[in-house]
Amino acid sequence: MSSKKDESSSVQSTEKQPIHDGIPSPDVSDVEVATFGTSVRFSKEEESALVRKLDWRIMPLVTILYLSNFIDRTNVGNAKVGGLEKDLKLVGYQYNIGLSVFFIFYAVSEVPSNLILKHVGANIWIPTIVLFFGFVTLITAWVKDFSGFMAIRVFLGIAEGGMMPGIAYFLSTYYKRHELVLRIGIFVSASSMSGAFGGLLASNPVPIPLIQALRPHGKWRNIFLVEGAITMLLGIVAFFFLPGKPEETKFLNDRERVIATERLRVETAGLSRTEKTDFKLVLRAFTSVNNWLCGLGFLLCNIPTQGISLFMPTLLKGMGYGTIESQLRSVPPYVCQ
């Protein structure tokens, strides 16, 4: 009799485990797993409430941080129509070279930045990155010539390279794979919003008396001072509000921390989430056809996006508009987008 009961109970247990990507996982509406030496049971409603709490705490912050990242990258286009090229005595293709060298160092710094992030934690490394490129943006106001312009673009590329992959990795520690698609789309959309904010800030930067007193000669320099100061302030805020690992963060209570950790563990049961980062793993990433195809697609998407962001104010000024008009008229396309 007992053997029959055991068989029936095992059948019922198997029926409750749907197949997800070929891996059996418990029904999220009634999950029972072992963690921290206890048996944890949570409902689908509890999980949904947790995701909403994560969204309200994480998504606005990372979107604003990425917005500042993109503004600090593209504000050079607004500064150009404000007199940057003339004041720095840039000739020929020197301005374009300065723009291009940024992307070379941006691409090179992405992988090393994420390797550092995995060791020190996203809640420490991402705010540090924001402070770094905010400071680089701010000191751009004191650039005097082409060599200084080149140096500042190199440091900006190194500082900003880890931002997008860092946020993507950070989100993957809190959200399931099917939840990531929407969240990554939300924070990346800040790249479109940056054109609108950048044009508005460049047309009439905030008249902060202290910044105006520090401002060197040339109105375009005020763009970098104001936007760099705002970015550094955001970086400081991020140190206090960007959460750490799900199992350690303080903005979740004990039960929410367990659910946040276990729901990802259940989804990835049987998969290796803790592969050791070594040369073979890095080499495998570079030899993956999927990675190269995704990279090519992203490259083709970014060519027009970055080109419009960097050169739209110049194009508008070439049409006969004044400096302020050129800045303001660069806003509507991004609003529509």
UniProtKB/TrEMBL annotation:
Residues 58-337 form the Major facilitator superfamily (MFS) profile domain. It is found in: Membrane. PROSITE patterns: MFS (PS50850). Its main location: membrane. It is a multi-pass membrane protein. GO terms for molecular function: transmembrane transporter activity. The chain crosses the membrane at residues 91-108, 120-143, 149-171, 180-203, 223-242. GO terms for cellular component: membrane. Keywords: Membrane, Transmembrane, Transmembrane helix, Transport. Residues 1-29 are annotated as: Disordered. This is Major facilitator superfamily (MFS) profile domain-containing protein. It comes from Tulasnella calospora MUT 4182.
